[in-house]
Amino acid sequence: MITVHVFKTSVKQEGEVKQLRPWLNRLVHNNGHWNFDLEDCDNILRVESKNLDAPIISSLLHNKGFQCEELQ
């Protein structure tokens, strides 16, 4: 079953997305998909995955220096 997590982030530029891309690709790899909506005022990160929990995703962004909060 695929789970969708949506996060408000402090990622604001395409260069920051490129910086995170290898890490998010490793985290999600063959089990899902992720994308940023930098046009949204909350700089949304959407992750679709079969086996990832929200704290793992937010921890990755925090460790890379970004704010990340799951939206309900």
Gist?
With 72 residues, the chain is of the alpha+beta class.
- Residues in helix, %: 25-40%
Number of domains: 1
CATH class: Alpha Beta
Number of strands: 4
Largest sheet: 4 strands, antiparallel
Give the ordered list of helices and strands.
EHEEHE
State the helix count: 2
Terminal residue distance: 19 Å
Provide the low-confidence segments as ranges.
none
Please tell me the CATH architecture by its name.
2-Layer Sandwich
> Which strands sit side by side, in order, in the main sheet?
2-3-1-4
CATH topology, by name, is Alpha-Beta Plaits
Structural class: alpha+beta
Give the overall pLDDT as a whole number: 95
Protein name: HMA domain-containing protein
List the helices and strands and how they pair.
Elements: E1 3-9, H1 14-28, E2 32-37, E3 44-49, H2 54-63, E4 68-70
Antiparallel strand pairs: 1-3, 1-4, 2-3
Walk me through this protein's architecture.
The protein is of the alpha+beta class and 72 residues long. It has one domain: Alpha-Beta Plaits (2-Layer Sandwich), CATH 3.30.70. Helix content is 35%, strand content 31%. The longest helix has 15 residues. The chain is globular, with a radius of gyration of 11 Å. This is HMA domain-containing protein.
Short descriptors:
2 helices; 72 residues; four-stranded antiparallel beta sheet; Alpha-Beta Plaits; globular; HMA domain-containing protein; 35% helix; alpha+beta
